[in-house]
Write a structure and sequence with these properties.
Chain lengths: 123, 267
């Protein structure tokens, strides 16, 4: 959660507590319900807009899928050996497939490309 | 009182709030991945639709460049995000070859279903989609507004349509003359078993026999699809609208079935 989201959340919590206390002393009419709903929707719209704006400031998460030349030049045994090394260096390394059918040599290389890229990426 | 949602559905809805998606146009699985710090890449992957690689909290989803439609790309990304947010464990231990073998196996069926639920509920949220599902007549054209508005695949959109449709309809995917799966609406009175033979008098069956398929909905006797049903009269009218699914890994026929009489009786 960002700082502005936290501020807005705190503000909303105070406003809500105050409104609940006030509501205990007055009858709820359809008009009040309608206005309360509109207010809540407006707050949700604003929060959503802030979330989108904050994310838009961050760099794109769509990255190149190209396999680097050094990996392209490796044979399958070399790729597996390098994956094995990375696994020792990063014990939490894992991967899984959707609709898996088989692992071609190129798939093996793209697996290593993804692993190397993740290792190189900062936190 | 609002009904309690299952964990995958609740997570999918919470993610919509987190990413600030309040309208269909704001739903984008790449943005959802970005919110979670997951990289997305489109590139070489021929033996699977997608792959997720993780090192601790860092993750990258690779979507096969064989998948060219936006709808299927969205589903693949969101399915993998589903595994991520549900905290499904990936194999980490064992010797290299057993680790490799486990990573290439299909995952646990329940985990697959839950990741699919996250994908469907996030890409096609019930409160946004339900208004599109009360329409008649029911055919594949009725599903197109969902495909266009939410940028989802024809198959995913059709399944969501029947899930939320109050009328008696069902979507059936068949291939090589056999039923692969069927998804009925809550009010559809019968069911087709997997591997059931598709009758040649149905549109799908006609396609398997002749290789041609009409692109218009057609009224049939219900016995064309349900010859042995005790819940649907053989002479009841059934409307079928069918299309070939041209995507890699598919190639069969998607049929939307509608029982207008049952819909009127339920109304």
């Amino acid at each position: 959660m960002t700082e502005s989201q936290r501020d807005l959340k705190a503000f909303m919590a105070i406003a809500q507590a105050s409104a609940v206390e006030e509501a205990k002393l007055m009858p709820t009419t359809p008009d009040i319900k309608k206005r309360a709903h509109a207010l809540a929707e407006m707050a949700r719209d604003r929060l959503a807009s802030m979330a989108r704006e904050e994310r838009a400031k961050r760099p794109s998460n769509v990255v190149s899928g190209a396999i680097r030349a050094a990996i392209q030049a490796m044979n399958p045994a070399q790729v597996i050996a390098r994956l094995s090394e990375l696994r020792v260096l990063h014990p939490g390394m894992s991967f899984a497939h959707l609709d898996y059918e088989d692992m071609t040599e190129e798939d093996l290389r793209s697996a290593l490309e993804d692993a190397e890229s993740l290792v190189e990426r900062g936190d | 009182m609002a009904r309690r949602l299952s964990r995958p559905r609740q997570i999918a809805r919470d993610l919509l709030v987190q990413v600030g998606a309040r309208t269909p146009a704001e739903i984008d699985p790449i943005e959802t991945a970005k919110e979670l710090g997951i990289e997305v890449t489109f590139g070489h992957l021929s033996g699977a639709t997608a792959r997720i690689y993780r090192i601790g909290s860092k993750a990258r989803i690779r979507v096969s460049n064989k998948i060219v439609t936006v709808g299927r790309r969205h589903r693949a990304i969101m399915h993998e995000v589903g595994h991520y947010v549900l905290g499904h464990e990936l194999p980490e231990e064992g010797d290299l070859m057993s680790w490799f073998h486990m990573s290439c196996k299909r995952r646990d069926k329940q985990e697959e279903r839950d990741a699919d639920i996250v994908a469907v509920e996030h890409l096609l949220p019930e409160p946004m989609v339900r208004p599109y599902c009360a329409t008649t007549p029911i055919d594949l054209d009725a599903v197109k507004p969902i495909e266009r508005t939410f940028r989802t695949s024809p198959v995913m959109s059709a399944i969501r349509f029947v899930e939320l449709c109050p009328h008696a309809c069902a979507v059936v995917y068949s291939n090589h003359g056999r039923v692969v799966w069927m998804k009925p609406s809550r009010t559809f009175p019968s069911y087709l078993a997997k591997h059931a033979e598709v009758n040649a008098s149905s549109l799908a069956g006609g396609f398997f026999a002749s290789g041609t398929l009409s692109d218009a909905p057609r009224p049939l006797f219900a016995s064309s699809w349900f010859p042995e049903s005790t819940k649907i009269a053989p002479s009841a009218e059934l409307i079928e609208h069918a299309a070939v699914v041209p995507e890699p890994g598919w190639g069969g026929v998607l049929s939307m079935l509608w029982l207008p009489e049952a819909s009127r009786a339920n109304a």
